[in-house]
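Example (one chain per record):
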Amino acid sequence: MCCHKVWLDQAFTVSVEVSLNLRNGGAFGSSTTCATVEIEIVDTIFLTVHFGLQVKEVLQFHNLGQKLFGEAVLGLSQGSVSELLSKPKPWHMLSLKGREPFIKMHMWLQDPHRIDRLRLWQTEQKGRAFSDSIP
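Predicted structure:
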């Protein structure tokens, strides 16, 4: 079990245990991992907007698509990722299930090897698609 903390300011702390289904083997594993994530929240609107903007910036800087990020990290479609990043709801309005993508975004942003892992996952997916197309 790992614990990630975000210290935005002094307000209140939310601690959630989230089950992460890491997608399709490879760089992101194939098992379900349980993690406790503590996030100190100052401005609940800022939190979701902040994570969304950070993810968008990293993806754009490294020329990586939302589809890749959504499938590999969040387990969501490109359309769902686009909606989360462009129109994030305030934290307090989200259910635990609605908070999970933002928690996963935070955990991904904390990973120093996030880009290498994402590119490796992308390469492995291309390899699988190629081998599946061979009769």
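Caption: The chain has one domain: 3-128.
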